[in-house]
């Protein structure tokens, strides 16, 4: 194959680093000890279950043969079922098969993708592992090796399937693609220890016994419904099963905790395998790019859902992903190399502002920072080939469009949808971003929130003392970050409370770089609560000072007052409408719980029609008259509102609920609320733009 591309491996490979680490072996020993402990306990319980089954079988046959009456047969059958059910509970995992299913996957063949198959075949040779049983493509930013797992897969060889997400392919170069695939194969390489696979399956078996019991419970329920005596036997069976679970649950917790720690070591080991064949530098850059790509893909999924409301459907979500990525690159000043952003782990970590650092003993994957540091310590790098990973795929445009269709697999699509391409998406996306973008002059002070002014008395607030004499003194970088700082502190406060309440299994944590024991969290919580309260107080004061500053310099003070008051008034309307929707939801709660008599239903519906429905119709009518809801509103909202306002729904009659009418009432308000929030933001942005315009006039005078 003349145009076959395959990046080089590192020139120097340290074979000693391919040997599983001391940490790997230590965690493996812990897992083995836990499994042995579990097996000993399980075999003891199994022996007891067999003895119980034999005893119940003997007793059941004796009861039936001794009495040979209907009741004797029922009791005997109950005893036989009791013994059999307990024994089956102990061995049912043998028959369980765990299928890894994803309706978004599409299998590809070597005839369809010859270059991809040649690439993967060469990589399996380098990693010394088997070629995948099947290769699938999916739309996601992901790559994984998977297979259907059962009890027997612990002992019998199982060929794995490979899934490649095109959202990932779209975001990395060919050297990075090789590194990511090598990491996946590294989990099953002959250089990698097989214990991880064994413990994974053992863990699933234990989980099946403890938690995956829906079918078993349904069987007992049917059995119990036959006769009262059998019901008693079923209750006894349940109690015995619960006792077995209680004994095993503590051991499972120990095994699972050790398994999670082993999984972390397995990730590091697979990273080392990948570094040996593709370069640790290439895997490190891939991991950072994948983090960014995942966020961009999520934005595209969200916007695809939005555009469906406008009867628009995307032809190629992967081109849209690149549009979103380029926008982020421009916003954050990142460099591009062959169309892909230069992303570092430091850049990714800059979006995490927690002051708390701890090692989660239940985390199955190391953090991006930990993996990057590990890859740097391995010291096996390779020259990066900047060619796009798409270079090893055939018919890429057709492939992208085919997998884009899978994005909509869970949605029932209408027939009159209009497709849009990347150019139209880019124009729409940029216009939308600009519509919600606030002036940079404010340094982010007003971003991602509304100021808390609903209780302001503008005639008093306008006289607030303002220490700042210039705009730059008021809207500093520090003040611009204040709201984000408060929000991050509130998130840390929740985490600290979880630590204090024992919800997180850790021994210690770092706060602001200083180490603390969990018992010391109370003092930090008190301090952080005071810091948050002071932050909110400062933010509220700055908001008033900003208004007073612009009021003082404005040549048209009435206009500024009018815009602020308009925002206050519309905010109140929006919040009142939200409250109305919440009240309607509360009215529905008894119906969802299924605990309403016909008389109660009539009373509830009567109150609903007299109060909430009447108020909802009045508000919808006013929104239509004020053209807040118009022909351009999505989902035929104007037509739906008109029909609802003119309707005479009964909601209840002939001793049953009219579900279609109730669903209409319950659902009509939420798209209207979306429209209100759009208008509210326009008031907000216009108010802030007016302030700046007044300042420009003031400085120009």
Please count the beta strands (DSSP E, at least 2 residues each): 15
Range of strand content: 5-15%
State the separation between the terminal residues, measured CA to CA: 72 Å
Give the spatial strand order of the biggest sheet. Answer: 2-3-6-4
Please provide a written account of the structure:
The chain has 701 residues and is an alpha+beta fold. Among the domains are: 440-553, no CATH class; 570-682, no CATH class. The protein has 24 helices and 15 strands. The strands form six sheets. A four-stranded mixed beta sheet has the order 2-3-6-4. A hairpin with a 2-residue loop joins strand 8 (336-337) and strand 9. It starts with 21 loop residues before the first helix and ends with a helix. The mean pLDDT is 85.
């Amino acid at each position: 194959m003349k145009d076959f591309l395959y990046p080089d491996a590192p020139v120097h490979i340290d074979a000693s680093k391919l040997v599983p680490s001391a940490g790997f072996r230590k965690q493996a020993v812990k897992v083995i000890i836990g499994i042995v402990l579990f097996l000993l306990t399980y075999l003891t319980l199994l022996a007891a279950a067999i003895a119980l089954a034999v005893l119940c079988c003997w007793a059941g046959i004796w009861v039936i043969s001794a009495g040979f009456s209907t009741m004797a047969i029922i009791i005997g059958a109950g005893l036989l079922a009791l013994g059999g059910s307990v024994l089956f509970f102990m061995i049912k995992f043998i028959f369980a098969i765990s299928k890894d299913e994803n309706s978004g996957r599409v299998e590809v063949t070597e005839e369809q993708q010859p270059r991809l198959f040649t690439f993967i075949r060469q990589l399996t040779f380098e990693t010394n592992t088997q070629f995948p049983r099947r290769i699938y493509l999916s739309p996601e930013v992901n790559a994984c090796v998977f297979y259907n797992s059962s009890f027997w897969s612990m002992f019998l060889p199982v060929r794995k399937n490979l899934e490649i997400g095109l959202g990932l392919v779209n975001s990395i170069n060919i050297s990075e693609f090789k590194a990511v695939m090598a990491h996946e194969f590294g989990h099953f390489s002959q250089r990698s220890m097989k214990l991880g696979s064994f413990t994974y399956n053992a863990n699933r078996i234990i989980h099946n016994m403890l938690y995956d019991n829906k079918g078993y419970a349904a069987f007992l329920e049917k059995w119990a419904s036959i006769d009262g005596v059998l019901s008693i036997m079923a209750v006894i069976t349940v109690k015995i099963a619960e006792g077995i679970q209680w004994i095993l649950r503590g051991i499972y917790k120990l095994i699972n905790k050790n398994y999670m720690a082993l999984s972390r070591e397995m990730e590091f080991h697979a990273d080392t395998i990948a570094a040996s064949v593709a370069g640790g530098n290439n895997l490190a850059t891939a991991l950072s790019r994948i983090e960014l790509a995942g966020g961009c893909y999520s934005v595209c999924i969200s916007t695809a859902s939005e555009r469906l409301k406008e009867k628009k459907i995307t032809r190629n979500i992967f081109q849209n992903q690149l549009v979103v990525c380029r926008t982020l690159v421009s916003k954050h000043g990142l460099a591009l190399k062959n169309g892909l952003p230069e992303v570092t782990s430091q850049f990714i970590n800059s979006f995490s502002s927690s002051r708390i650092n701890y090692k989660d003993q239940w985390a199955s994957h190391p953090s991006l920072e930990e993996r990057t540091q590990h890859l740097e310590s391995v010291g096996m790098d390779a020259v990066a080939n900047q060619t796009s990973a798409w270079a090893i795929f055939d018919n890429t445009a057709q492939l992208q469009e085919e997998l884009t269709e899978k994005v909509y697999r869970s949605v029932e699509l209408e027939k009159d949808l209009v497709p849009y391409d990347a150019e139209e998406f880019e124009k729409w996306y940029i216009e939308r971003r600009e519509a919600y973008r606030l002036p940079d002059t404010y340094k982010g002070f007003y971003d991602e929130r509304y100021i808390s002014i609903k209780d302001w008395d503008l005639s008093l607030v306008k006289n607030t003392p303002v220490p700042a004499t210039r705009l730059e003194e008021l809207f500093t970088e520090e003040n611009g970050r204040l709201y984000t700082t408060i929000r991050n502190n509130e998130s840390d406060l929740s985490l600290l409370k979880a630590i204090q309440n024992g919800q997180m299994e850790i021994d210690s944590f770092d706060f602001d770089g200083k180490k603390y024991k969990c018992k010391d969290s109370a003092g930090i919580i008190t301090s952080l609560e005071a810091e948050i309260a002071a932050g909110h107080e400062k933010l509220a004061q700055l908001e008033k000072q900003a208004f007073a500053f612009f009021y003082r310099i404005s040549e048209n003070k009435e206009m500024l007052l009018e815009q602020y008051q308009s925002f206050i008034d519309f905010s109140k309307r929006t919040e009142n409408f939200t409250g109305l929707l919440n009240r309607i939801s509360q009215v529905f709660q008894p119906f969802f719980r299924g605990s309403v008599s016909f008389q109660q239903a009539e009373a509830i519906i009567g109150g609903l029609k007299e109060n909430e429905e009447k108020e909802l119709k009045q508000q919808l009518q006013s929104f239509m008259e004020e053209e807040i809801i118009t022909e351009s509103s999505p989902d035929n909202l104007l037509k739906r509102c008109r029909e609802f306002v003119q309707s005479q729904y009964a909601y209840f009659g002939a001793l049953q609920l009219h579900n279609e009418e109730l669903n209409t009432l319950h659902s009509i308000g939420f798209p209207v609320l979306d429209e209100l929030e759009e208008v509210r933001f326009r008031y907000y942005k216009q108010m802030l733009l007016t302030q700046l315009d007044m300042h420009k006039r003031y400085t120009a005078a």
